[in-house]
Amino acid sequence: xxxxxxxxxxxxxxxxxxxxxxxxxxxxxxxxxxxxxxxxxxxxxxxxxxxxxxxxxxxxxxxxxxxxxxxxxxxxxxxxxxxxxxxxxxxxxxxxxxxxxxxxxxxxxxxxxxxxxxxxxxxxxxxxxxxxxxxxxxxxxxxxxxxxxxxxxxxxxxxxxxxxxxxxxxxxxxxxxxxxxxxxxxxxxxxxxxxxxxxxxxxxxxxxxxxxxxxxxxxxxxxxxxxxxxxxxxxxxxxxxxxxxxxxxxxxxxxxxxxxxxxxxxxxxxxxxxxxxxxxxxxxxxxxxxxxxxxxxxxxxxxxxxxxxxxxxxxxxxxxxxxxxxxxxxxxxxx
Length: 335
Known about the structure:
The protein has 335 residues and is mostly helical. The chain is built from 14 helices and 4 strands. It has a two-stranded antiparallel sheet. A two-stranded antiparallel sheet has the order 2-3.
């Protein structure tokens, strides 16, 4: 048998190798989408300075932050709930009840004790929501919608539907007091954001919240106590809502059951605008801070332009829809 002729053997040229995609290298559009709300904030600030030349004055910046401190505090707690895949519609009622209790307690005990008593009431309200949602398995939307009416009714009954005026020295410290020239409400807001961001980013508890929001069953199978952790997120919204209510009462000197009616929707809008996903599992405290600054800047510009309230609501709603659309686009590209 003759051996095969080597000269007759042809070798096909190798196909060019596809250029491997480097893991972790983000494309420009992905970066733009990821930090989309940061660019929006920068654009808004520039426009605000053009519309209102005094925008960057220290006094104006102080007013912007102090006016939005209550909403920002509630948004901190709401960030935990939403990342964990939940929802809380009762925060406005808790804030109002907290302000009423704070004003009432301050008339009988010292201010620190009144603060502690109101915060305890916030924990109780959050515990009620958490137990109903995690133990009785009632839908979080239905639960917090119902408890919102309960807490609001309690505030009206406790105050006899009358404002509780409080002129006690020190009562206004949370709302208008200062430490080293910085308003106390701003310091409280900054501390809440810093602590909340640290917990979410660096603690086992924070990682568990992300895991629960991303996939409840997988989190449960990995040993995470899903019900307990989800319940604690409602404790956080109870605490932050009462803190917001106390600041509102301290700023005005009055505890009222009808105060802060828009704080629920505004706090949710802040979280969504910042880029935290309504589907859970994604988000960050710095994103909520960006969302708060966007909403605060818009409100300040609206006030400078003296725009009609109806127009303001239309613009806010459009911004929320745009933020949700951006989140959906980012998720689809990632998928």
